[in-house]
């Protein structure tokens, strides 16, 4: 967890705050991610209950292929690692290296989304075909929304880590750390989702 | 962690609108936001109360003659949603939490002031949207629970507006919860230990944990429900192979904790009010803390007691009956602690004290019927009858709303620097207490005799008791008048209160009334014993 040590900046940005205290934005973010995780937990619980009590109707098609989601899992895991690299580079004030890693991470995120869309278009069932189809699209769609937002945020901090005028420095790591934590969270959710939706 | 205050630099008041206009601005001051929550909530309380009056007028006669049946359904849906999501939850959490928590932890503001303002300003638009849904063709009429398939088969436009509005309010609630957790855990003044915090902080910590853990599940559920309505999916639609019981599980996973979200802060507030007006320390501080946390943990695993008639398997019935009965233990501990706090105290009979005692009486009654409802055979008998309505209102009106009024009488002088009139306050209490019990006590009898809830018409044999109940509702409506006159007159020319009219020891009273923007001139006081009544000043830490 970082601490805001440039107190002048606080005074300038935040005219109402007149005390200097520990930076707990990360604490707030973690609390928010717990809440966000509970939304997914609700979806997972619904899906597992359906699996346990609602039989697939006769003639309904619900089959998933493994290759694309496996590739997607690898993409996201690698992107977590590259994001970590970006953080390490920024800590050593190597801004351009950090920016390269960030762009690479965003690129992996975009590939993930493209693969996901490719899978959507080639699946033999649509959103309203049957209960499991609906749940599949709702779960992966909600996760895809998270990946989309995450990719946009990565692009924003990549822009902010530019050499001239970028506000991301080794002294101001919070934006990068926050997005990194969010990205790891989205990865973790994907791994659980992959196990529950595709493997179980 | 260091806190440095430079009075020269903190005078940024010129940036903010002054006077009452600041209550209409995007203010970051936690005190302004607290009052915004309170006033906004009270306006919605008046709307919800009007709708409740309409329901009771309709039920004064067995036939549906005051309004058509579908309008009755719309009115009860709006009444429930407004009262829960726009009055009780925002006021008992947002209003008092924002006003008091920074004082109690010795801070100048909440942990995330901007998030705080955003959380408040989500409420008025979503509230107006909810009220506006009434004027759309086909307003929501599936009750505040919005159970499918009813919510899927009734007209769609109103139901969708209802879902959007509740989603926004849930978001506001989550933002508030994150802010409270961060403020209580992280923003405490140096030297202030957790076990020295006033009880309301613990109540808000527990409540916020429940908000953060359970509200997102409701959000996810409502998103799925909106897919069912808009996109023709079948998550909860049995015709398309869906499962309505899954909706009920997910819904009650939020909505049972929601009862504790509405009631735990009231527990905290009454623990602040009773010691001051009985001049005694709060009895059993540590057991109170552990009871709150016990209620939080148990509150998350009792939801299926709302679903005993939904084809719940026997093992589930057994588990949830036992878990629900267990919740009576920490709640009971708290009640004995409050009674023990009063025992032998120098009790002053004023409006705040009377409303708090009214709370204890009403809530014990609601608690007893709650334990009764947890028993499967009894629950199956009275399920979906007026017995449940009576139980719920004893908890939420007799419990929480009484405490909201008690808190207003207690803290009005802190917020405005003026005293509320005690005679009008006691009159308000007497009318409210009689009206409330007249309205809801007979409904137990109605429910036991089989009068179903949420129906505009009923068997004529119930007419007399229903008319008594409606008379009580009339009294409750009238009781608002002395309160409003009281607030209006006291704001104009009330008696000057001074900084600490009750001689209270909690930190918010150690500053001027109304408090300055930075809460205290100079350093925040360290209050290690917020309940040190009855001790010599030299003995107090």
Key attributes of the depicted protein:
heterodimer, A: 200 residues, mainly alpha, 0% strand, disordered N terminus, B: 541 residues, 16 helices, globular
Secondary structure layout:
The complex is a heterodimer of chains A (200) and B (541).
Chain A: H1 7-13, H2 25-53, H3 67-91, H4 95-122, H5 131-160, H6 174-199
Helix pairs in contact in A: 2-5, 2-6, 3-4, 3-6, 4-5, 5-6
Chain B: H1 7-10, H2 30-58, H3 69-105, H4 113-121, H5 123-132, H6 150-153, H7 156-186, H8 199-230, H9 244-278, H10 285-299, H11 314-342, H12 351-374, H13 376-382, H14 386-416, H15 422-448, H16 463-493
Model description:
The complex is a heterodimer of chains A (200) and B (541). Chain A is mostly helical. Helix content of chain A is 72%, strand content 0%. The longest helix of chain A has 30 residues. The two termini of chain A are 37 Å apart. The N terminus of chain A is likely disordered. Chain B is an all-alpha fold. Chain B is 66% helix and 0% strand. Chain B contains 16 helices and no strands. In chain B, α2 runs antiparallel to α3 and α7 runs antiparallel to α8. The N terminus of chain B is likely disordered. Chains A and B meet through α2 and α5 of A and α7, α8 and α9 of B.
| Residue fraction in strands of chain B | under 5%
Number of helices of chain B: 16
As a percent range, the share of helical residues of chain B equals 55-70%
The assigned structural class of chain B equals mainly alpha
How many DSSP-defined strands of chain A? Answer: 0
Alpha plus pi helix count of chain A: 6
Radius of gyration of chain B: 23 Å
Q: What is the subunit arrangement here?
A: heterodimer
Strand content of chain A: under 5%
Q: What gross morphology of chain A would you assign?
A: elongated
Low-confidence stretches of chain A: 1-18
Mean pLDDT of chain A: 86
Poorly predicted sequence stretches spanning 5 or more consecutive residues of chain B: 1-14
């Amino acid at each position: 967890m970082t601490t805001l040590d440039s107190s002048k900046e606080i005074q300038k940005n935040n005219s109402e705050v007149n005390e200097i205290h520990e930076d707990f934005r990360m604490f707030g973010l973690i609390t928010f991610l717990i809440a966000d995780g509970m939304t997914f937990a609700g979806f997972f619980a619904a899906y597992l209950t359906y699996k346990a009590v609602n039989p697939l109707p006769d003639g309904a098609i619900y089959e998933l292929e493994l290759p694309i989601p496996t590739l997607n899992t690898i993409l996201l895991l690698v992107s977590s690692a590259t994001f970590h690299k970006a953080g390490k580079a920024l800590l050593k004030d190597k801004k351009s290296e950090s920016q390269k890693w960030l762009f690479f991470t965003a690129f992996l995120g975009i590939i993930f989304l493209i693969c996901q869309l490719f899978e959507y278009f080639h699946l033999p069932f649509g959103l309203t075909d049957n209960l499991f189809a609906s749940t599949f699209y709702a779960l992966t769609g909600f996760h895809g929304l998270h990946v989309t937002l995450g990719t946009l945020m990565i692009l924003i901090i990549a822009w902010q880590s530019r050499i001239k005028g970028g506000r991301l420095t080794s002294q101001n790591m919070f934006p990068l750390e926050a997005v990194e934590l969010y990205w790891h969270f989205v990865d973790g959710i994907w791994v659980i989702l992959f196990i529950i939706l595709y493997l179980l | 962690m260091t806190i440095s205050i430079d009075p020269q630099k903190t005078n940024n008041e010129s940036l903010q609108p002054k006077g009452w206009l600041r209550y209409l601005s995007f203010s970051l001051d936690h005190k302004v936001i607290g009052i915004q929550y309170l006033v906004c909530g009270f306006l919605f309380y008046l709307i919800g109360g009007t709708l409740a009056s309409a329901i009771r007028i309709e039920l004064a006669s067995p036939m549906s003659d005051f309004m058509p049946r579908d309008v009755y359904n719309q009115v009860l849906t709006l009444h429930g949603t407004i009262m829960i999501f726009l009055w009780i939850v925002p006021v008992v959490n947002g209003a008092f939490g924002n006003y008091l928590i920074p004082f109690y932890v010795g801070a100048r503001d909440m942990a995330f002031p901007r998030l705080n303002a955003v959380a408040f300003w989500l409420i008025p638009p979503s509230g107006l949207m909810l009220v506006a849904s009434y004027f759309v063709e086909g307003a929501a009429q599936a009750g505040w629970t919005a159970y499918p398939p009813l919510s899927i088969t009734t007209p769609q436009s109103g139901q969708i507006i209802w879902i959007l509005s509740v989603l926004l309010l849930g978001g506001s609630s989550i933002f508030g919860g994150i802010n409270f957790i961060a403020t209580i855990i992280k923003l405490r003044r140096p030297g202030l230990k957790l076990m020295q915090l006033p009880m309301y902080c613990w109540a808000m910590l527990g409540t916020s944990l429940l908000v953060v853990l359970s509200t997102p599940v409701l959000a996810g559920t409502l998103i799925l429900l909106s897919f069912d309505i808009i996109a023709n999916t079948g998550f909860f639609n049995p015709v398309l192979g869906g499962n309505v019981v899954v909706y009920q599980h997910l819904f009650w996973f939020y909505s049972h904790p929601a009862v504790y979200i509405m009631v735990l802060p009231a527990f905290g507030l009454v623990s602040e009010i009773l010691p001051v007006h009985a001049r005694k320390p709060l009895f059993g501080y540590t057991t109170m803390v552990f009871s709150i946390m016990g209620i939080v943990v148990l509150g998350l695993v009792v939801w299926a007691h709302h679903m005993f008639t939904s084809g719940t398997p026997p093992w589930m019935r057994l588990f949830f009956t036992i878990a629900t009965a267990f919740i009576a233990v920490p709640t009971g501990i708290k009640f004995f602690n409050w009674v023990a706090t009063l025992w032998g105290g120098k009790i002053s009979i004023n409006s705040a004290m009377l409303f708090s005692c009214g709370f204890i009486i009403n809530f014990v009654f609601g608690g007893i019927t709650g334990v009764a409802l947890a028993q499967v055979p009894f629950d199956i008998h009275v399920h979906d009858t007026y017995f449940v309505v009576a139980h719920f209102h004893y908890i939420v009106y007799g419990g929480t709303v009484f405490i909201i009024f008690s808190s207003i009488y207690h803290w009005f002088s802190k917020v405005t620097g003026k005293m509320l009139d005690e005679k009008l306050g006691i009159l308000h209490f007497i009318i409210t207490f009689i009206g409330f019990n007249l309205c809801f006590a007979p409904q137990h009898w109605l429910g036991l005799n089989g009068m179903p809830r949420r129906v505009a018409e009923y068997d004529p044999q119930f007419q007399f008791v229903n008319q008594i109940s409606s008379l009580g509702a009339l009294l409750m409506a009238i009781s608002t008048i002395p309160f409003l006159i009281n607030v209006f007159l006291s704001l104009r020319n009330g008696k000057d209160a001074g900084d600490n009219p009750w001689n209270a020891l909690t930190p918010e009273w150690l500053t001027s009334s109304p408090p300055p923007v930075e809460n205290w001139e100079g350093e925040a006081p360290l209050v290690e014993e917020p309940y040190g009544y009855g001790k010599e000043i030299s003995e107090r830490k």
